[in-house]
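Morning!

This is the sequence you dropped in the shared folder:
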Amino acid sequence: MSFANLKAIAAPLEDVFAVWGFGGGWAIDGTIGEVTREHHDVDICILREDLAEWREVWPDALWYKMVDGREVELGADEVPELPVHELRVKDGGKTQEILLLETDGDDWVYRRDPRVKMPVEEVFVAGAERLSFLNPAIALLFKSQNIRDKDVKDFKAVLPFLSDFERQWLLLALKTVYGTHIWMDSLKER
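The structure's back. C-alpha cells below.
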C-alpha cells in the first residue's frame, strides 16, 4: 500500500464536513511523510457523534459493527455505544474499516481511560500528500497497550517528528494510564 492508495480512498470523502483522518500505522507514516513499513489495512477514524453524516457518504452500503470479533448488522439509525468502536462498511465490493472516537464537549476522550483528553481541534493533523491523519501521539497511545514489533518500529520512526506538544501530551497520557511506561524516557529526551 502507498499514499496513492490512501488518496484514492480519500477522494470520494472530500465533501464530508465532519473531521476525520487515517489512523494506525498510517498516522505514523503520514506524519513522517514516507511509508516506513508494510501496512495491511487502512483505518478511517471518525468521531462517534458524526456517524449519521458518514452514513450519508455510503447510503447504499451495508454497515456492520464488530462485536466480539463478529460482524453484526448495524441498525438503520443506530449509533452503537462503547465498547463497540469498530465498524465495517461494505459498498460495491469494497470494505472500509471505521474506528469511532469518543468526545466530551470540545475534547476527544481516550476510550480506555477517560482521564486522558485532547482538544478535538488537535486530534487530526494534515500530513503527507495533504491527507488527514490521526494525531501521531494518539496513535502511539493506542499502540502503547499491547506493544508489538511494528509498534516499537512506529514509535522509533516517528519520535523525531513529534512536536513538543505531542511529546508532552503523550508523556502525560502514558503517566496517567500506566504510571510508568517503556516509552517515557525516550519522550523526555530532546
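Headline: DSSP finds eight helices and ten strands in the chain.

More detail when I'm at my desk.
O.
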